[in-house]
Every structure is written in C-alpha cells, then in structure tokens.
Design goal:
- By secondary structure, the protein is α/β, with parallel strands linked by helices.
- It is built from five helices and nine strands, in the order αβαβββαβαββαββ.
- It has two domains: 114 residues, no CATH class; 93 residues, Alpha-Beta Plaits (2-Layer Sandwich), CATH 3.30.70.
C-alpha cells in the first residue's frame, strides 16, 4: 500500500506587506506646520550651543596652557633652589624690559626671562630659561591693602539722598583702588543716614576696610536697621556727612 508523503507546511512570512502605512492627512499637515514653526528656533538653539561649547573650549585651553607654563617654570626653578610650598606664585614673562618700573627687575631682568613672585613670602625670582639659570632672587614688598583690594567686590549705595555725593565717593574709591570690582547700588533702603558707613561682609579685609574709612572719612559699622545688605565683599553706604 503506497503511503503519501505529506507536504511540509510553509511558514508564512511575517512581513508580507511592505506598503507604507496610510497616514491621516490632518496629522501630516500638523507635522509640517510644527516643523515649519520650530525649525528656525531649533537651528538658533543649536548655533548658540555650538558657540558656547567653542567659547568654553577656547577659554579652558587658554587657562590650561597658562597653568602648564607656570607648572613647567616652577618645576625647572625648583630643581635649582628650594621654593616656598605654602603658596602658588604669580608667573610673568619679560617681553619688554624698557617698560619695567620695579628697580630690582629693571636692573636684573632681560627680555625672555621668566619671573616668579611669591607675595606671602615676599620673594621674587628671575629665571633665564635659555641657560637654565636663576639670574637673581630678591624681596618684594606688597601693600596688604592693595592685596586685599585686588579682585575684591564692593557696592556703593546712596543713603544721603544726594546722588552727587555718591558719585564723588565712587570716583574716590576707583582712583585709589582701581582693581576693586565696584558696583553702583543706587539708592539705599534709607535716605536719612547721617554717617558714611563701611561694612566688611567677609570679616577678613581689615586693611582695606580701615583704608576706606580713612579715605572716605567714614565709620566702620554694621548694617543699619531697615537697610538691605549687598551680595559683595564690602558695602559702602554714603551718608549725609560725605564730602
């Protein structure tokens, strides 16, 4: 008796229809309108992001290069003499000797020399890289008031109801301490303060505070009642006694 062979069942292809899925015309229209509306905004955001990233990269690269140069010079000089370990020096390269105003540097340094200045230790080192020699080591005296003024932030507010007095006070400070980052805070919350008050919000800039007291003929004080503090290192509130 003949046995018929069963044909092997063919598995159906799961993907049988490759035609695109039909879309609702209204959905397509909405998508086109959305794309048209926000494409310029998206492009603007991308451009801004690219500029920010580029600026950050250039700034970081410049900072890293400057720090690398400082570390290199400190390493070379450190092989020739014992250096202070309690502070990081300020680094500079002499590019035009004729413009040096410090007598010690003007008499010892040459163009191309590298200078390390240790403020706390009152030490200045002149290093000549082309011969790998220390040319001279000297002392440097720094006015502690100027040191505290460097990069300090200060707000001046008018508590006298006299804008002219306030502007005169601002000008005095800028002439005496140009490195202070000064902000004109406008009118104080009170306009009846009899005395000019200098407030040190850091409690660590005594030299600068007393210098400002002397410069402005003011008083060291605390924040007067009803006056808001400023988000800066120091606050000067101009009183009616200001000259």
């Amino acid at each position: 008796m003949a046995i018929k062979k069963r044909k092997k069942a063919v598995q159906p292809n799961l993907i049988t229809d490759l035609r695109p899925v039909s879309q609702n015309p209204s959905d397509v229209t909405k998508l086109r309108q959305f794309t048209k509306k926000y494409s310029k905004l998206l492009l603007t955001v991308l451009i801004i992001a690219a500029l920010v990233c580029t600026t950050w990269f250039i700034s970081t690269k410049h900072t890293n290069s400057k720090q690398k140069n400082l570390n290199h010079v400190v390493s070379r000089v450190g092989q020739l003499m014992l250096l202070p370990s309690n502070e990081q020096p300020t680094f500079a390269t002499v590019t035009d000797k004729t413009k040096l105003t410090d007598k010690f540097l003007a008499s010892k340094a040459a163009n191309g020399d590298e200078v390390l200045i240790y403020t706390k230790n009152q030490m200045v080192i002149i290093y000549r890289p082309d011969i790998n020699k220390i040319v001279a080591v000297g002392t440097v005296s720094v006015d502690p008031t100027l040191a505290e003024a460097k990069d300090a932030t200060l707000t001046v507010e008018d508590g006298s109801n006299n804008p002219q007095k306030t502007q005169a006070t601002i000008q005095k400070i800028r002439v005496a301490y140009p490195e202070i980052k000064l902000t004109d805070g406008g009118k104080a919350s009170r306009q009846d303060l009899p005395d000019t008050i200098i407030i040190d919000n850091t409690d660590s800039k005594d030299n600068l505070m007393f210098a400002l007291v002397k410069l402005l003929s003011g008083k060291q004080g605390v924040l007067p009642l009803g006056v808001d503090n400023a988000p800066t290192d120091m606050l000067v509130i101009v009183g009616k006694d200001a000259n």
